[in-house]
Automatic annotation (TrEMBL):
Cross-referenced InterPro entries: Hid-1/Ecm30 (IPR026705)
Organism domain of life: Eukaryota
A GO-annotated cellular component: Golgi medial cisterna
Descriptive protein name: HID1 domain-containing protein
Region: Disordered, residue numbers: 650-689
Amino acid sequence: MVSFDVVSLFIRVPSVESLNLVSKHFSEDTLALFRHVLTTTYFFFGGQFYKQTDSVAMDSPLSRIIANFFMEDFKERAIQQATHKPLCWFWYVEDTFVIWPHGPQKPIDASDDSFWDQFWSENVTNVQDIFTLVPAPEIRALREEAPSNLATLCYKAVEKLVKAVDNSCRTHHEQQTVLNCVRLLTRVLPYIFEDPDWRGFFWSTLPGQSQDEAAVQSMPLAQSLITAICDLLFCPDFTVAANRKSGPDKAEDLQAIDSCEYIWEAGVGFAHSPPHCPAHDSNRTELLKLLLTCFSETMYQPPVDIHVAPNRWIQYFTCAENRHALPMFTSLLNTVCAYDPVGLGVPYNHLLFSDSVEPLVDTALQILIVTLDHDTSGSAPEGEEAAVPDNLFINYLSRIHRDEDFQFVLRGFTKLLNNPLVQTYLPNSTKKVQFHQELLVFFWKMCDYNKKFLYYVLKSSDVLEILVPILYHLNDSRADQSRVGLMHIGVFILLLLSGERNFGVRLNKPYTATIPMDIPVFTGTHADLLITVFHKIITTGHQRLQPLFDCLLTILVNVSPYLKTLSMVASTKLLHLLEAFSTPWFLFSSPTNHHLVFFLLEIFNNIIQYQFDGNSNLVYTIIRKRQVFHSLANLPCDYGTIAKSLTKRTRRHLPSTTSTENIGELPSMEGSRPALPAEPGTLKATLPDTPGIVTRSATVSDTPGIVTRTATLPATTGIVTRNATSIRLTEAHSLAQGSSIGPAAGMVGPGGQWIPTSDWVNSWKTKLPLQTIMRLLQVLVPQVEKICIDKGLTDESEILKFLQHGTLVGLLPVPHPILIRKYQANSGTTTWFRTYMWGVIYLRNVDPPIWYDTDVKLFEIQRV
């Protein structure tokens, strides 16, 4: 062991060498500024001012940064040139501690406590120190060159946690030791997971351990670690407030404690509100970070493997062997749902006081979605009833049934999801949370596992408090390729909700909020908001969103039979979409583009057949745009016209603004801003392909006249998310979507390019559902033209008034059954959600950067 200490490091760093290092990272102009700041300063001594002419400028704010540059370079050169590579290199400012073996590296005995205790010394007081003192190359070198020492290090750290539990973790010294062991394991575990040969280490006997010793210690190290963490998460005076039933001087036995009495927050299943302590919040957060790191073994497996072998860490944490499973689940759920980022509402309070609860809520939410994603009971043969989930977290979530509990959970969702939308007169005066993506995943899981909660949400107008923030995020993210994953989860949730009749009915509630979105100002309902935002996504969104068009229109189809009064703005948007999608070049350019026209025609038919009376705006717009429908009915099918249409097109993308025949340019909503393009990132991750959902044949639902069908989700080849660190994931999309609307037959040209044929066009053109609309035009157009001529009407409001009092009873074809396309999960979407979820967690955990620069297999990370 060798210890180095640099005297007066900050002012004695060699200036020339340091500036040479800086020049590798900055431009010449910046380098000149560095040189000036580092070499120029004045100081006052003996009543006079003096100019410093030697060494680095005293008290320069850059001295520490330059010293770090120099010491990092010194470390790398020293290690590269060393004949014997150091076993460990711990460096903190000017102090360097090196374990330098001479000759072959020998295993260090586990009983040498004086050596191992250095790793959880009280001198280290925060997690950033651990990540600085234990760099990645040293962990990998230890893993490859001294595996027995790495194994012993992990074993001793877990042993310390177990002993702390045995002693009830009473003293400050024990608590600091526990925190440092937790930080060290959080740092080391990802590098154990990235090596397949080490992945089973925590679940088997230690290297070099005899069978007799293994028999004595029957519990795998992983189970000992999980058990110790759970015990410590309900440790009085460390992570929870003490319950002094046994007297102030007697500590409770953590292994026998009833942790249900120490649930962290009032809410579901627990009425008592415990006292709040920031130190307890901080300690809980660090322990939960270690739990999350344990669960992250999934990130180091390819997508094809994650269904083969379950995550044993999550399996043990959520099984009946963990006696803390129920209070742990309840504590996590209540902590998330009870959190109020605004607090007392004092402006700028988040800038004046640190919030110890937000990091806890952030990590608790990530633990929840990770554990709820681990469902090993969903593979029951078709026709058989699914077994009770082995995962107790899923079991507990599915069994919540009291209305007051649903109200508490739903209020938590709406409060947190709407937090970024809160408008104040004072800019940035309220705290904005950043975990909306995790919240959306959690909401998805809640609705998926607890149908009673889904129906509770849908039976009240509170579902609109979920809808509006989702639409806000969809609109805000539409042009940012780094947030395509957020777009997917938002659309999937809306597809799930749209499969229920109550959602469509609730959309008729007037929309009066003032959310800052760059959409036209309108007076109308939440249905108008939904249509307007979807139109914006389709016409001005990123090109990678094109696979979502089917989903967006499926949502509108599902709700269309219940929309009572569409505004003129929304009506015009729908007709504009039909106008854009029905152009010959667009219809002929892809084997699936005609599906979009079918969806739009189905929307119009549903509204005309079931909600004609209140939708004079839409009827008027259809009459004005009747040429679009006539053109569709007379779409040319000969090959010459098809080829001519394809060669005449000048651009591949849809128009981004409404035509002049539609309503003119409308002002955007107050406070809105256009969606921003993707910011340049430092990381790029592309995820593997996941299959789309296969459409099933229609089956009659319980509701007469309503047919349900499984919805087809797009095939996605990745997720996209972003956070403020410019670390980002990007993706490429596939347009391989399934549908039941017409075959995708055609010719294959040179290079495998698909070419439309006359037979292909005829195969779906004859199925276009135009009868209802054509009958409407046949009846109403002559009437409208007649009153315009007879009364000299030029004001559209008069025509609308006429249409409002008109009727088509007995004139239209017999109403068709309402077709509802419901979402149904499969292994493809399960893989997508898991990959997206871990991608978000990877990006959000940058302080400390737990998984940064490790060999992740679930998605690809590339430097850009």
